[in-house]
Fold this protein.
Amino acid sequence: MTETSTLPLRNPRTGEMEGGLRVTPADEVAAAAAVLRAAQPAWERQGIERRCERLAALAEALAARRDAMIEVLLADTGRWHESVIEVDGTLAAIRRWAAQAPASLAEPAPRQDAIPFIQAHQTWVPYPVVGVISPWNFPLMLTLIDAVPALAAGCTVLAKPSEVTSRFVPLLRDALAAAGLEEVFALVTGAGATGQAVIEASDHVCFTGSVATGRRVAEACARRFIPASLELGGKDPALVLSDADVARAARALAWGSFVNGGQSCMSIERVYVEAPVAEAFIAALVKEAAALELAWPDPRQGRIGPIIAASQVELVRRHLAEALAGGARALTGGELVEHGGTWCPPTVLVDVSDDMAVMREESFATVLPVKVVADEAEAIACANASEFGLSAAVFSGDPERAQRVARQLNAGAVSINDASLTAMVQTAEKQSFGHSGLGGSRMGSGSIRRFVRARALLVNGGVASPWWFPAAE
């Protein structure tokens, strides 16, 4: 029996440690997976309509706990407005899956093969146990974004949220029990060792997090010959072209970069603006950024919350210090502030160069570097000069030009005349390019197919076998 331990829970608003998080030992993780594996056949036999009824019940159970869930997410993340959006968005997503999943996994009618007397029947076989390892920036949503369609597909789920933001787990467990899902959805808590135990006990792993950890997850899954769906980091670019509405672009990019304190994989993290509109755009962006206040001391006032994970603080500090030492100028912000926890005022950097870490590495903060480029071709080249390829944005007054430029970007989703629409539009399929991820789309109705294996039933309609082999004379 592995000795149980705890990890400290930090309040990101105050920086204080408040209680501890129980670490689920590896043997308990394995035991939980065994229970799920035993329950999965009966869950699959219930049929997708019944499973989706249970998911609808989960949405109602969470809705009944909405206010309490917002409060625990506030304690986990230190931000209020985005926690409200997270809970309400998660409820909408669960209800959407409950309504759409039956059609998404409907077995097509049998089809006649090229061989006239052979008929092909397509069936789907769910993975018994899907492991979900989720990050700290949107704890509830990014735990359920994979778990819910996996449940609809007939899988059971073993989930480990980030140890940084796990206060919501007891409340989610309570909602799962109320919806009758506690036998098919287990939650475990802990850090890397617990995540490794989840991988060892699962048949398919969904991971959201950093590139470095995602690579280790992929390698571990490869050793076990199980699939991994990875959504990793981003350094999302925005291109503001010479015919853009600069006021509109500035407002959209201030939101797309600074919402949730910039702590989102789809945050805009670098801007390339064509020279003819650069001065007007930068002035408008600075005005938008300067108007955003820290949500301190009241989390319901102001829009910028604290840096959630203590491990991020020094990285952000380094990015800012290196950029400023290298000749960049901060037109707003530029320094972290302490209010118990650590906060990053919205920061617009200019006079940046491509070799700066702030232009190459994911900052995950309210830091937005802006580079002036000569033309569209340079903007595209700069945007694509990255190992990441999660999403991007293009602003232009010419719809045809905007789409033409967007089609040249190495990114799985491109917002046009808006920013970070990936967070709002979950019906269109997209995949991560480059080091930003691996596996099928987690968006769109077809994304549920990640959780099933295709099986073909090939029916001989009556011709004696082996019909393909020459008969003996």
Remarks:
- The radius of gyration is 24 Å.
